[in-house]
Write a structure and sequence with these properties.
Layout: H1 2-8, H2 17-24, H3 27-37, H4 40-52, H5 59-67, H6 71-85, H7 89-96, H8 101-111, H9 125-130
Helix pairs in contact: 2-3, 4-5, 4-6, 7-8
Length: 131
């Protein structure tokens, strides 16, 4: 829904939503509003890259993102990462972890083209059926 609002917004001077936000806000509030205007996959890709590039890699953020997304969401993250940074997500992460150990194996299981872990998409219908 956020993306639909962003795409359909036309400001007073036929400006984009991002331009309107930049004209009216600054600092941390502008940062938050800008992130809300991006897709979740783009935000996830940015957070993974920020976490990957730290001196001490922040595996907690990477784990949270990779372990809590469905397969289709992971595909969107991989596409957004490739589009933004020009390289494959799996290769970047393996490079950061020197492609060694069990963590590299887990990354390969999660981020391969044909995931071996089935993650079901959330379907609100199931909630209604349980009531």
């Amino acid at each position: 829904q956020r993306i639909e609002v962003r795409d359909s917004y036309i400001g007073a001077k036929s400006e984009s939503l991002q331009s309107s936000l930049e004209d009216n806000f600054s600092g941390d509030l502008l940062l938050v509003l800008t992130e809300l205007c991006r897709s979740s996959a783009k935000n996830d890709a940015e957070w993974i890259e920020k976490s990957r590039n730290k001196l001490n890699i922040n595996t907690s953020v990477i784990n949270e993102i990779l372990m809590s997304r469905t397969n289709s969401q992971l595909e969107e993250i991989k596409k957004a990462y490739k589009q933004r940074f020009g390289r494959e997500l799996l290769q970047s992460l393996l490079q950061s972890f020197n492609d060694t150990g069990s963590y590299g194996s887990v990354l390969k299981l999660i981020l391969t083209d044909k995931p071996k872990i089935l993650r079901k998409e959330f379907n609100p219908k199931y909630l209604k059926d349980k009531k």
